[in-house]
Specification:
With 415 residues, the protein is α+β, with helices and mostly antiparallel strands. Helices cover 44% and strands 11% of the residues. The strands form two sheets. A six-stranded antiparallel beta sheet has the order 3-2-1-8-7-5, covered by helices on one side. Strands 4-6 form a two-stranded parallel sheet. Helix 4 crosses helix 5 (59-128) and helix 5 packs antiparallel against helix 6 (136-147).
Length: 415
């Protein structure tokens, strides 16, 4: 090796230089470049330096073992460095993942808070409104935002309208002889084309929410639904999913293209469809006001009669008390007992008359039937069970406790 160094003119100090210093030197011979690499020349130089310092008896054997030990130690250091790198990478990845999870959790909390605020605002609006019709637009937008539906549209069950003539009364436009239809009256902005569209009770699947016999017997095979008002076509033999107990009374089709009865108002697209009845008892009609005025007059007459009977009883008691006081005064003067009144007999007043308390009659009401329709057409997804429950609960928020029970109502304007 020394001979090689001598012949090639290898500079030992040059070998031990760092790369930056070597780059500044211009004396590297092409033939010695390989030996001068740090992985070779520097290592050999270190080994020779150790031989020169220790003067072993067998320098060649010592140098060979030194190189093997150096190689082993270098591998250990490399392995340690690699493990340390992997550990730091894992720590960084874990920290990044935790940061992402924290951000997701924060976003989730903010979304839940926003949803809660929207729910509270809408519940307050629903409870304070005098007529549900006034907030149907807000209901449609609220349901779309919180379910990510493609569209929400609301229909009313009513008799179709007809032309009126001059001099007709205020109800002449209603054709009560014609079968009921579902007329869409409200919709989210991107589904305004549905407003004033009508659905016969023999078309589509929506009429099933009102449990109308004609709808159940309909055999229409034509596709009839809306792009966001989809009710769907179903191929022969397709099985329907079982209806959950808490979803009875609603119409839900997981995939509109599998429902043969669906009616479309635009080109069908993949997605689901749901219709929920919104039925409540309302007193906001002329007959109810007339009836309320007449029944209130009867109520006030009963109240007046009761008051007169109570006053007559009070007057009688006052008179008897006055007579008793006069008798007691006479007895004290004459020191004689009252004739006909046995000694010790207790003076009693007549009992207060037991009167039936009149109650104000309930307002005369009639059911108002709406249907809230929504779909995910174009999204090719179903409404989750939680989303379906949310829609049902929202519709029940200010309606009868059950879609089929009109005996009570949560509407403040209802009886």
């Amino acid at each position: 090796f020394q001979l090689l160094i001598h012949k090639r003119g290898i500079d030992m100090q040059f070998i031990l230089m760092d790369k930056e210093t070597k780059a500044k030197k211009h004396t590297v011979h092409r033939d010695t470049y390989y030996i001068e690499q740090d992985e070779i020349g520097k290592v050999i130089c270190k080994g020779l330096a150790s031989v020169a310092k220790l003067h072993p008896k067998n320098p060649v054997d010592y140098l060979a073992k030194w190189l093997l030990a150096y190689h082993s130690q270098t591998n250990v250091q490399k392995e340690f460095a690699e493990n340390e790198r992997k550990r730091k990478d894992a720590q960084n990845k874990y920290a990044e993942k935790m940061r992402e999870n924290a951000e997701k959790e924060q976003v989730k909390l903010e979304q839940e808070k926003a949803i809660k605020n929207k729910s509270e605002e809408f519940e307050k609006l629903a409870k304070n409104t005098e007529d549900l019709y006034d907030i149907l637009d807000s209901l449609a937008i609220y349901l779309k935002e919180l379910t990510s539906a493609t569209g929400v549209y609301i229909g009313e069950l009513e008799h179709p309208k007809k032309e009126i003539k001059e001099g007709d009364n205020e109800t002449a436009h209603i054709d009560e002889a014609a079968p009921l239809v579902i007329r869409y009256i409200k919709a989210t902005p991107d589904h305004q084309y549905l407003v004033d569209q009508s659905l016969k009770m023999t078309e589509g699947v929506t009429p099933e929410v009102f449990n109308v016999p004609e709808a159940a017997q309909a055999q229409s095979n034509e596709p009839v639904v809306d792009d966001a008002n989809k009710e769907v076509k179903k191929e022969e033999g397709d099985a329907k999913k079982p209806v959950e107990d808490d979803e009875k009374g609603i119409v839900y089709r997981p995939q509109v293209t599998s429902e043969a009865k669906m009616k479309y108002f635009k080109v069908p697209r993949l997605g689901c469809y749901m219709a929920v009845p919104l039925i409540y008892s309302s007193c906001l009609f002329p007959e109810s006001l007339d009836s309320a005025v007449a029944e209130y007059a009867v109520y006030m007459e009963k109240v007046k009669k009761n008051e007169e009977q109570i006053k007559a009883w009070e007057d009688q008691c006052t008179q008897l008390k006055a007579e008793r006081e006069e008798q007691q005064q006479e007895i004290s003067k004459t020191e004689e007992k009252v004739e006909g009144a046995p000694p010790g007999e207790e003076f009693k007043l007549p009992e207060k008359p037991s009167l039936e308390q009149p109650k104000e009659a309930d307002y005369k009401t009639k059911p108002i039937s709406y249907v809230v329709c929504m779909d995910t057409l174009g999204q090719d997804r179903e409404f989750s069970k939680e989303q379906r429950k949310f829609v049902i609960d929202t519709c029940l928020l200010y309606t009868s406790p059950s879609p089929r029970d009109l005996s009570t109502s949560r509407m403040p304007s209802s009886a």
